[in-house]
Amino acid sequence: MTNSIALVLALLILGAIAADVMLYGTEHLIFLGKKFAELLEWIAFWR
């Protein structure tokens, strides 16, 4: 992955998070953060 592709992906993700916060609030981010932490633990188990 080149730096330009990584930068575009990061900007897209940050834009999607900003839009979600403006439209729906921060409750979704807390839920997704907890689920992402669980996913990381599960992936680390299989590593």
Can you walk through the features of this model?
This protein is mostly helical and 47 residues long. The chain has one domain (3-46). The chain is 89% helix and 0% strand. It has two helices and no strands.
- Which parts are unreliable, with pLDDT below 50 for 5 consecutive residues or more? none
The number of distinct β-strands equals 0
- Which value, in Å, is the CA radius of gyration? 14 Å
Oligomeric state of the chains? Answer: single chain
Please specify the SSE layout and strand pairing.
Elements: H1 3-24, H2 27-46
Key attributes of the depicted protein:
47 residues, mainly alpha
In short:
The protein has 47 residues and is mostly helical. 89% of the residues lie in helices and 0% in strands. The chain has one domain.
